[in-house]
């Protein structure tokens, strides 16, 4: 084992050049349509492989469901959605396992390969790097609004499109850009995952709130109380690790801590490498920079 627990995925050496990269992720439904849910879950599960700079090869399905509430047709559609997305990624579904559960859950255990000299870790950013984010924030808030009946499925077209977007092209561009550190933004929100990149280090992240892309209607939904519990938990757990400006609202803080399903990549890389993302037309926003420090995050 050359990368153990604590990073986005584990890495196990095969030979002098190649290693296996492995991860697992399971989520509850974020949309009503079972096919779309299966596809989103697959996209989400693949993300940790891409966050390490790896190439996914195979997957095993993990399904929990109350059999009295969901029949075979629903389960079949979830699996069809997952297989469709795996096929897009060039990944083979090898099998899986199902259990009786009180709540519907679905995800994948994914195995891929990675070149040892090109492993991208959570930590490794250096002063002078820029920080780029490849997907806007607000997915957790908007899907919570869907569950709270403040939004309909047809109002989440852009959000669903983002959750179905693989991070494969962004990962390849990050490798080509001489990236120093990278992670994907999921359950801990932007600031939670950013903190994992700086903790116990001699660097700080300086983030510009105005430069961070946020999906339309997110603030409206926050004002309506449609904030996932996970955002409050993230804020409570990490608030002391982040410096906010005076009078920076709790609503804005919650957006930065919003749990993302199948979120984008947060990448620390040299300024001159941004041209690679621009050349490949990869969606990316420069949201901050890396400075010498003491393992903290500063938002301005």
Query: Which residues form runs of ≥5 with pLDDT under 50?
Result: none
Number of strands: 12
| SSE series | EEHEHEEEHHHEHEHHEHEHEE
- State the strand order across the main sheet: 7-10-6-11-8-12-9
Which structural class is indicated by helix and strand composition? alpha+beta
What count of helical segments does DSSP give?
A: 10
Q: What do the pLDDT scores average to?
A: 95
- Helix percent reads 25-40%
Largest sheet: 7 strands, mixed
Q: What is the strand content?
A: 25-35%
Terminal residue distance:
39 Å
Textual characterization of the structure:
- By secondary structure, the protein is of the alpha+beta class.
- The protein is 33% helix and 25% strand.
- The chain is built from 10 helices and 12 strands.
- It has helices spanning 34-51, 72-89, 139-147, 157-163, 168-176, 189-198, 218-223, 229-238, 250-256, 274-279, and strands at 10-13, 18-27, 55-65, 92-100, 105-115, 130-133, 181-184, 203-207, 242-243, 265-269, 285-292, 297-299.
- The chain has a 7-stranded mixed sheet, sandwiched between helices.
- Helix 6 packs parallel to helix 8 (229-238) and helix 8 (229-238) crosses helix 9 (250-256).
- The relative contact order is 0.18.
- The model has no long low-confidence stretch (mean pLDDT 95).
